[in-house]
Amino acid sequence: MTATRKPAKKSAKPARKPTAARLRKLLATELGFWAEGLPHVAGVDEVGRGPLAGPVVAAAVILPEGCWIEGVDDSKKLTHERRVELYGRIMASCVCYGVGAASAAVIDRINIRRATALAMQRAIRRLACPPGHLLVDGLPVPELGLHGQTAIVDGDAKVHCIAAASILAKVTRDRLMERLALRHPAYGWERNKGYGTPEHLVAMERHGCTRHHRQSFQPVQHTFGDTLRIQALVHDAH
Hints:
This protein is of the alpha/beta class. The chain has helices at about 20-25, 30-35, 80-95, 105-110, 110-125, 155-160, 160-185, 190, 200-205, 220, 225-235; strands spanning about 40-45, 55-60, 95-100, 135, 150. Helix 3 (about 80-95) packs across helix 7 (about 160-185) and helix 4 (about 105-110) packs across helix 5. The mean pLDDT is about 90.
């Protein structure tokens, strides 16, 4: 009998470096500032505006001129494993980075918008080198100074350094919530990261709130039963 040969496995193709034209497209926003002699362009983004518990976290990152890290994208589009991998690559590649946070108590005291701005300010202050310009995700943040700031809606999906900042902020906050979950295991924060999932709402009803809950957020002010009744009333109204 003639032995049948198994088809040889195809070796994985090495990742291709983007062409100069492709790089110009990927780094279009940054290139404009680099061309003006501003090499230290910082991408700034935040994560954690919506959860019922935990801090809001912001990150600022300055990448070397011309640097493009394959796979970096809006953190919401990436799996946890991919974010962690890219987190390490960003940390190894960047000129410098800074991370800042504002606690639930601060959010309750000054409101979420101002707390987000404070977290961004803290992240920027922790940059080892002063930024020549800020590229901020979303709307302008007056607290950062409108001169020297460019706000870009959906910037984490459009601008490379903002996407890198979104990954640093997301991984940092997830790790913080996992550590808090060890102290308060009833709420499932290692899974829901403080967002208002049914699991989290039921735990709040059974065990009450912790000092890490945002008392100014409506679902925290109401019990789970109240929330269900409000939802029923809204449903009946339609």
